[in-house]
Specification:
CATH superfamily of the largest domain: Butyryl-CoA Dehydrogenase, subunit A, domain 3
CATH architecture of the largest domain: Up-down Bundle
Number of domains: 4
Distance between the termini: 93 Å
Radius of gyration: 29 Å
Length: 762
Amino acid sequence: MNTTAFSNYVLNKIRSAMPSMSQTEKTALDAGTVWWDRELMSGDPDWSVLLQTKKPSLSEKEKNFIENEVNTICAMANEWVTNHEDRAYPEEAWKFARDNRFLSMIIPEKFGGLDFSAYAQSEILAKISSRSSVLSAMIMVPNSLGPGELLIHYGTDKQKNKYLPELASGKAIPAFALTSPWAGSDASSIPDVGIICKQKWEGKETLGLKINWDKRYITLAPICTVLGLAFKAYDPDKLLGENIDLGITCALIPAKHPGVEIGNRHMPLTVQWPNGPTRGKDVFIPLSFVIGEREGIGNGWRMLMECLSAGRAISLPSSNAGIAQLVSKSVGAYSKIRNQFKLPISQFEGVSEKLGKIAVNTFLIDATRKLAAAAIDSGHKPSVISAIAKVHTTEKTREVVTMGMDIIGGKGICHGPSNFLAEAHIQTPISITVEGANILTRSLIIFGQGSIRCHPYLYEIIKCVENPNTEEGAENFDKLFQKQILSFTKNIFSNTLSGILGYVSFKSKDDVDPKCLKYFKQVTRYSRALSSVADLCLFSMAGNLKRKELISGRLGDILSNLFMASAVLKYHEDNGRPIEELCLVYRACELCFINIEDCFKSIFQNMENKVVSIIGKVLIFPIGFHAKPTNDSDLTSLGKKIAIPTDIRDRLTMSVFSPKKVLKSQLKYEPVYCIERALDAVMDCSDIETKIKKAEKEGKFLNNPYGNVRDIYNESFKQKIISKTEFDKIQLKNDTVARVINVDEFDKNLKKLKAAPKRTIK
């Protein structure tokens, strides 16, 4: 045995302090892959790993689908009508989705599917979400965690040939039942049980399972034709072997199978996508219903972990990107057309600051979801990255929507078809909750799983600790421990040197935009700091860190912000380094860096071992913290750029759907279209407005009761300050603006919508 006394001492301390790892935890850790997240945890990231990742792009087939089928289905959907007038999911659009294979984006072409890239799925869902979250959710689920994906990866050939063509054609509608009233985020603890037994099936004795389950929150369950089901399998009679507890198993059961109960509907915050419970009592299924048949028994947890990670990286990041872009587009324009104190409200610093924050967060959301999709298309199964993308895109979208509501004021709080933010405001908590509640995902998965999977040595060290052959474990630990000490010492020294001298190396085979080089280097600097601080926390707290959710959450936030900052830098490189985009790049990185340093400060403040905290802080940040928030002028300037037609605004809102033409009778249902037309009219009348304001300053309307903000245009025409042609343009502008700023009216019982009377500002 070649262990040193010190490493042996450390090993024994770790063994005594570290809680044992369950098999489900081990399976979760082994599921998926690490990629750029590992580089960021290493303390010495090789930027070539990121920069050489292929830029996300669409095939011609995918472009045509978005241009045609996606735009068509968006035009068919209307969130207000769905949720409040019909109070039912949009059946016409849903039929169109099934007929045009929207539910088969992940299914290979040989089974009749579209076989689209992850990036294409992300783009499609972003656009649909800007129009209808209901429709987006209904399309999202079959292409995320569902029977289709499970069958593709784990089904037998017979199962694939039977179900995948039906799923691709829309003939079969899938749902997947995982969550129960007794186990939500802790999915590994599901109480639903299947017992291996023999029973008569189709006239002969058949080996199968008798299952009891009680599930809730299951999207598409009320309308599904085939139900995916997760349960724990047991073999008390040892019909399959010597093990009794076989583990989590996934099966595919027809909704009309004897004993299957599809419950009534839930109502998630008045949103009309079909969601509800399912139950079953003593439901017998043959082993052929198990995904993977006999080989699939007990492998359900791995299936779920790997499929959940892929789904998380696409579904909610893309749908929230669509909502954030909608806010940027609509609220930006609204702030230009809405006047107070004879100025567009976008000119006020309080408003333009929030507009700037909306722009920055929208940019971060979009860059993050695109990099997450690129990871999948590059062959990765990014469990940690998908958790980062899910948590932070949904949280940032909630911030974006809230800021948008603040800006539009009374328009935002009066519900109706012309309110372009109300549905998004109501629905944002849903994204926070589903596919892994954000609180737990942030605290337990991002760093809890990320630290182990992404750390250069930690997972191997844990294997040494848990090795039943203690001598072999000690020998392997000694080798790893020496490497870990060397890596830790190197990172500490580099941090101290960088802090004092301000020098940070940049490791890459690829060149980057010189204007952004300092931001690349700063990510590297924080990566080293994260690696060092994480090691301090891991080795000073050992197993207690698992229970210190606030500290592990902050460590996870640091990793997340490093990922988002690097996503922004990669996005800029992929875009061809446009100069006009730099204002977004700089502001986004600055926000991430402020968040990172705030987390470091909180970690040092709350570490239990104050000696370790003080020494660590002095060595890692020897001259303190230096990240600075964005200057007021830079932020307000950026905000004003999304209030008017600019390249920045176009870049931020590329996924937002707006019809090209709308019937007059339908204008009240098309608020985004109306806002854009009003913005065009306002911009077209800017010179005329300048002429009127000049006349006002010259006293042309002094003591004139009709020189008010409403009637001044009539007076300007009467006094021949503006021509008839100019007056007509102003009238058109006023009509379009009035349509946008007015709010919907209902009858006295708030039951029947009454169109607001047309009000022309004269």
